[in-house]
Amino acid sequence: FCLHRYHWRRLVVDELHEALANRTLADALGLISAQHLWGLSGTLPAATAGDVATLAALFGVAIPIDATNAGRFLDCYVRRNATTAMETIPMDEHCHVVRP
């Protein structure tokens, strides 16, 4: 079964850092055609501008390999979970008792 033979509406890659660590797998992901591509990772490799450029290329974004553009890419495309961001989302809680 060859995933790159089809165009996908959305592709979600869990543990993206593991896929990027494996050059063969990272290259194969780059061949898959998808309208929307999401990568999930708790430990994204972004220590150098080169790491960020590799990540950007996977998502179809070409950036120069320098700290300024790497920072801009991370600011625009990488979401970080933080308690301050979660506090701004309104939440309503409703409890309903269900009896047989």
In a few lines, what is going on in this structure?
This protein is α+β, with helices and mostly antiparallel strands.
Strand content: 5-15%
Radius of gyration: 18 Å
Which shape, going by the Cα principal axes?
Answer: extended
The string of secondary-structure elements, in order, is EHHEHHH
Write down the overall mean pLDDT. 83
Task: Tag the structure with descriptive keywords.
100 residues; alpha+beta; 2 strands
What features would you describe in this structure?
It contains five helices and two strands, in the order βααβααα. The model has no long low-confidence stretch (mean pLDDT 83). It starts with 6 loop residues before the first strand and ends in a 13-residue tail after the last helix. It has helices at 16-21, 23-31, 49-58, 67-77, 83-87; strands at 7-13, 33-39. The chain is 41% helix and 14% strand. The protein has 100 residues and is of the alpha+beta class. A two-stranded parallel ribbon has the order 1-2.
List the helices and strands and how they pair.
Blueprint: E1 7-13, H1 16-21, H2 23-31, E2 33-39, H3 49-58, H4 67-77, H5 83-87
Parallel strand pairs: 1-2
Helix pairs in contact: 3-4
